[in-house]
Specification:
It is built from 15 helices and no strands. By secondary structure, the chain is mostly helical. Helix 12 runs antiparallel to helix 13.
Length: about 325
């Protein structure tokens, strides 16, 4: 199954727009100072940040494996690994199309019904959001400053458990899955709503809630610690607890913005909250840039590598085959 070409074009457009936003922000906050801070950042700290992000990805991959096995449809190890990490290249696509793309590829290449694939990707997003919300709430207890206009976003995030309860109402569930069924990659397929709800209920059982929340919270805590290491490397006196709240709040607001990968929103919140902690603008911008390199763009690069390796087996024809050329032996 091939990714529609217009999504590739939109992805490059998003990258270009983000580059403009980053450059504009750097010029406003002082590009020379930001560059100077980053140039003196210790290399060992970069390795620690990369390691923490990779730890996050690995834990969430094992969670993906757990869900597939819970639904009785485990994939071959190499196929599962390739599909899961290849989807990371689509983190910045509009509407997070990579999520439904995983379910569509599982159907096309592995014979896994959409009624099983869609609940898996829904459960992933639900537990991610809940885990980050838990970390933000924990961080609130030691946050020494105001919320800097984040009250609305945090309250909105706190409504997710309520929304999840409403989701189990048949009418609400049906409307939501009908909308998912209209996604470009899924609109030509029929999804059994009853089967989907049964599968999702199994992934929301008490046992899986406990396991998933532990795995997911630890995974996202690792990325919060990445911000703490970035601040330490930049000589900013930000505590572990403060770093947890700043990163979790930034991630929540970025998610609620519905922008691809939370681009722009997450960085802005991180910078604002760090400045509230008396971190100067250049240091705050450098910390936000560094942490996003390792928590977002590293995932995109990793996804691209896996996509290129697995594009023939999972994603259809190669570009040479599309253009009518001979395929390599």
């Amino acid at each position: 199954m091939k990714l529609p070409r217009h999504f590739v074009g939109k992805s490059f457009l998003i990258i270009a727009l983000v580059a403009v936003i980053y450059v504009a922000g750097a010029l406003w906050l002082g590009w020379d100072e930001i560059r100077d801070r980053i140039s003196h950042f210790p290399g060992q700290a970069l390795l620690f940040m990369a390691g923490l992000s990779l730890f996050n990805y690995v834990l969430r991959f094992f969670r993906w494996e757990l869900y597939l096995r819970q639904l009785g449809r485990p994939l071959p190890w190499r196929t599962s690994l390739g599909l899961y990490f290849s989807a990371y290249v689509m983190v910045i696509t509009p509407g997070k199309i990579g999520e439904v793309f995983k379910a569509a590829v599982m159907r096309e290449k592995c014979g896994v019904p959409l009624a099983l694939g869609i609940p898996v990707v829904l459960a992933e997003r639900i537990y991610d959001f809940l885990a980050v919300l838990v970390l933000a709430i924990l961080g609130l207890f030691i946050w020494p400053e105001s919320f800097a206009g984040l009250t609305t976003g945090l309250v909105a995030a706190a409504f997710l458990p309520v929304a999840l309860a409403l989701f189990r109402h048949p009418g609400v569930r049906t409307r939501l899955l009908n909308k998912l069924g209209k996604a470009p990659l899924l609109k030509d397929h029929t999804v059994s709503l009853d089967s989907s709800m049964t599968s999702l209920d199994r992934l929301l059982s008490l046992r899986l809630v406990l396991i998933s929340m532990i795995l997911t919270t630890v995974a996202w805590l690792a990325e919060c610690l990445g911000l703490w290491i970035a601040c330490r490397g930049l000589q900013s006196a930000v505590s572990v607890g403060e770093s947890i709240f700043v990163y979790a709040a930034g991630t929540l607001v970025g998610s609620l913005s519905f922008l691809p990968g939370g681009l722009g929103g997450t960085e802005a919140v991180i910078i604002i909250l760090l400045k509230n902690l008396s971190v100067d603008g250049a240091q705050a911008a450098a910390a936000a840039l560094l942490v996003r390199i390792f928590t977002l763009w590293l995932a995109v690069v990793l996804g691209l590598v896996f996509f290129l390796v697995y594009r023939r087996s999972l994603f259809g024809a190669t570009p040479e085959q599309d253009s009518g050329g001979d395929s390599p032996s």
